[in-house]
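Contributing new records

If you add data, match the layout below exactly. Sequence lines come first and carry their own label; structure lines follow with theirs. Keep one chain per record. Anything else will be rejected by the validation script.
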Amino acid sequence: MKSKTKILLGLSSLALASLASCQNNKDTTVANIRIVDNSIKASYTLNSEVDYSTLKIHTLNAADEIISTLAAKDNKDKITYTSIDTSEITDGKVFTVTYKEGDKTFNTSMNYNVTNIQYEVISWMPNQNYTYTTSTIGNNKLSTADKLETGLMEDGKYYVGNNNAVDLLPIIKAINPDNPLDNIDLDTIPDGVQVQLLQGTNSLKLEDYLENINELKSKGIVKFKNNITGDFTLTFSSSNQDALIKYEMQVVDAYNVSTPKDIFAIDNGVGCGGYGSDGSFTEKLKAYKTENGLPDAKGLVFQNDITIGLSDVPAFYMWGEKEGNKKPRNAGVNDSLIDWIGLFNYTFLEEGRVNVYGNSHRLMLNDQGDDAFPYILTDSREGELQEENKPISSHATIFYINFDRSVNPANCHFDVNDLIVSGNMGVSAESTIKKGGPMFVKSETSSKLKNVNCSSVYMSFMISGGDWITTNEAKENAVGEVENCRFYNCFNAGVYLWNNADLKVKHSEMIKSGGPLFFLNPMTSKLPAYTNATDYQNKIKGVPGINVEIDEDSFFSNYTEGAGGWFEAYSGAKEKASQLKALDTVFNKQLGTSFLKEDKSTGTSVSKFDFWMFSLPNGEGEALKLPVNNGGVNVNITKGGKLIYSTLNGASEVWKKAVQYKANPSDQQTALAYVDAVTTTDFGNNLFCNEAFSEKSNGQGLAFRALEEDGKASYIIPTSVDLASATLVNTKYSMLTALGYENEQLQAMGFSQNPSDAFKKSGVLAAAINDAAGAGGPSEPDKYLGVCNYGLVLGNYHTL
C-alpha cells in the first residue's frame, strides 16, 4: 500500500522491542550436528553414482534439540563432506560431514555399503514433479454465496525452462531377486532403455535439441539447448516394461527453480523495490547471485513447491546488527524485514515479456517456528522505531516489477501462471496492527495473473502508475489482468491500483479482504478549462486515471462489520463505515431494501456490508482526506459491460448545458436541461456532492447511484444526518429546490422527490461521498479544476 495513509493506532516502543525479540527460550548455541534421516542413501550398487544434492544436516544444541535444518548444496561455505566410493564392494565404510560455524567445527558420520546385487526392475512411473503438475485437475467453478470453491481453475500443464537442467528421472522400483524384502528406488536408468524426443508425431534427433545426452540416458537429467522452445514429448521405453514413460512439456525461455535461492535468478540487479536507490543494495544482490552461481533469467519455472523462511532471506534485506544487516536507527526493529523492499525484482530495460510458470506448485512464506519469514516492524526507510499510534503500512512485495524510463510500461509484460501463493499477513480483526507482511506482485508495468490462487498476503496484486503518464505522451497506462484467479484473506485489499492504471478481471473471484476488494488511489489532475463540448470531451479522455473492467461472471464477497484491522489503520474509515451502516435503516423504511447482512456465525448477530470497492483520491499526504483545490480524478468501473461507478462520465454534457444555463438562467427549459445533465450523469453527481445544491437541500455530500433501463443513472441523497427524520430524495428534485423552485411548482411540473424504482431492484450500490468543498462551481466551467469524492461500491444490495 502507498504510504499516503493515515494510520490510527500503533505500537509503543516496548511492544515493538518485545515483538522483535519474541522467541521461545530454546538454546540456539550449536553443540552438535546430525545427518537428516534419508537425506542421502546408505546403500549403493557397484559403480553407481552418488547424489549429494539431497544431503541435509540438523544443527543441535546441548539438549539435542534441533536448531535448524540446512541443505548442503545451499551452504557450501559451511558444510563439507567426504566422498562415497562405489568402485568396490564394501560394508561399513564411513561417510563424514563437517560443519563450520565461526571458529568452531562439528563432525558427524554414517556407515554405507556397496554391493554387487543385480536388482530386478518391477515397475516404473514418471517423475513425481511431473505427475504433480499433470494430475492437477482444474476446478473452473466460481464460488457462490452458498458454496466456497477451491483449487486452481485450469488443468496442470508442464513447463520446462531451457536455461538449466531439470531432473526427470523416472521412479524405478526394483527388488533383490534373492530377498524380496530388499527393495530400492534405482538412481540410474537400466541398460536397454530407449529415449525418444517427439514434436507432434515427428521423431527428432536428441543431439539437435538436447545437451548432455549421456546424462539424459543414464540419470534422466533433461537440458534443452538455449535456443529451443516449443511443445515436445520425451519418452522412455523398455522391452522389459509394458508402461511407456511419457513427458509432454512446453519448453520456454526460463530458469528452472526448486529452492528459494533459485528465484533470485529473475533479479537483474537494476531495481530493488522502493529502497536502496544509492546502489548499495543492488551491488550486494549482484554479489549474492555470483556467489550462488545464479544467472540473469527472463523467466522462471517452478519444478516443486517452494517455502521461503528466515534462513532464505539475504542478510542485507534485514534490519539488524548481524553481519550483512542494514543497521537501523533504533535497535527495536532488529531482525525484521526492511520495508519498501522487493524480495525478487525485475526491471525491464527493453519492451518484452517475462513469465513465471508455477507448474501448479506452491510458493509459501513460512509463518511458523524459528525459521518463520520475518515480519516488517517499521515502514521507516532509515529503520526508525515505528511511531506510537501508527500501525505498519506495508510496501514490501515478493515480486517487484519496474521499467527503465526509456521504454513504455504498457508494452512491458510480467505474467504469472499456474501458481498457488500464501503469505504471512491475512485479514486481522485486531484494533492495532503491530507488524506487516509483503504483498505478492507490485508492478509498474503491464502484468497478468492467470490461474493463480493467492491468500494471506498484504495485497495480492498492485498496479502502480506514475507521473510519467502526464509528462510523456508516448507512455500509456500499464494494464493489469486477472484471469481464472482466486484471491482471498488479504489484509489490505485483493487488488490495489495507484495513481493511474487499467485493470481487467475475467472469470475470477475475490473473497474476504481486511479492507475493500478493490482499493483505488487515483491521481488528481487539474481538469482542462471548458471551451466547447467536442474539444472538452477529447481533453477529458486524456485525463490520467484508473479504469477497471470486470466481466459478468466474476464473483466477489467481502462482508465486513467495518471495524478492526484495516478500518483502524485508515483514519476515519471506521467512523465512515459506522455512518454508512446507520443509513441502512432509511433504505429499509423507505424502499424496502438493504445493503447489510446479519452474520450470526458467532452466536451474536453482527451487521455487515459487502465491501467491493473504495476510491481515495491521491494527494493529501498521510491523511484519509480529500484533496481540495487540486483537481479531480478520472475513475471508471464496469461490470458485465455496465458502468457501475465513474467520476467524469458526462462531463462534456454537463458543461454544455451549464454554459447555456449561465447565458439564460431565467429560461425554464434551459434550467431543466441543465438539471437533467447534472442529475443523470456521474460527473454531474460528483459535482452535485461538492457544490451548494447538496447543502441547500440539507444533503450530506453523499449520493447513491442506481442504473436505469435506458442506461442513464439516477441518484438519491439522505436529507439529514438525523436518521429519525431523514428521507431519501432524488437529486433532481433536490437540485431544483436548491435553484429556488417551490414544492408546489415541482409537483405541477410532474417532479417527485421519491427515489427512482431502480433503487428497489437488487444488485450493486455505488456512492460518491464528500467531506470537502470543491473548486469552481456550476456557473464557472471555465474556472473549474475538478473535485474529489470518495467512491464506494457495495455488493449484495437487495430487497427485503
